[in-house]
Amino acid sequence: MRIQTKSFNWPGRGTYVIMIAQGIMNTSALIKMISEVAALAIANPNCKVLIDCIDSECTADLKRIETLLTQLQPGIWPVQSKVALISSLKYGEYARLSGVSTLLAANGFPVAVFQDAQAAAGWLGG
Known about the structure:
This protein is of the alpha/beta class. The protein contains 4 helices and 5 strands, in the order E-E-H-E-H-E-H-E-H. It has helices at residues 27-43, 62-70, 91-106, 117-125; strands spanning 2-10, 14-25, 47-58, 82-86, 111-114. Helix 2 (62-70) packs parallel to helix 3.
């Protein structure tokens, strides 16, 4: 999987990060991406992250991800930080990313899945 990351600081509004994920998002790739996003959010408490997963396919083992997430220290994720995942329009892909989102949200990560970049950006800004 290939991930491109761009970040910028918007004075008075916080840090914004755009990630573009391409290829197969297996368990290792998803863990790497979550770790990268968590590090950015911890370093920048008002961080908004938009992850474009349109050109990726999620094959991650959610049970393994859940096990790893339960080992994290509670409250590690800054409350004001958010992550928006943009899914492809394929139903199966949206369902898999929704599973990832639900798992992350259950562990304190403010995250949502969208099929439209404009809706995702609106949610991040709100």
